[in-house]
Request: fold
Amino acid sequence: MSELTHVRADGSAHMVDVTAKAETSRTAVAEGFVRTRADVVDKLFTADLPKGDALPVARVAGIMGAKKTPEIIPLCHPLPLGKITVDFERLPDGVRIEASVKTRGVTGVEMEALTAVTTAALTVYDMIKAVDKMAVIDGVRVLAKTGGKSGDWSV
Reply:
């Protein structure tokens, strides 16, 4: 198991030592979807849900989620996040959520971008479940990252 960075020889997990790594500018972009009925999409984008205007609440929840990532994902390093955006795109069958996170640090922000998307998606689900208990969260993935030893990439 020695080739696994977060696992010691005895199989126990540990947080990787990043103290010798150089700080670089890093970004990550992630997306996810909440699938629901067309009438619920209308309610979502016109702020006509029983719980209120879901998208501003989900945006703030996503930003908060990114900031809390090292508190809920055990082996993530705390990072000084310089910018977090959470945006929504209306689709015929739901909403596409995209989060972008930037930092200057020693490790990437992919987990923060994923946490922003999933937290925003969970918030949308929470706020639409009164009108659609069958809504689905899916397609959560990293779209792009920049910086660090592994370089830049995108799907």
Remarks:
- Residues 24-154 form a domain with the Alpha-Beta Plaits fold (CATH 3.30.70.640).
- Residues 17 and 61 are 30 Å apart (CA to CA).
- Residues 110-128 form the longest helix (19 residues).
- The longest strand covers residues 24-35.
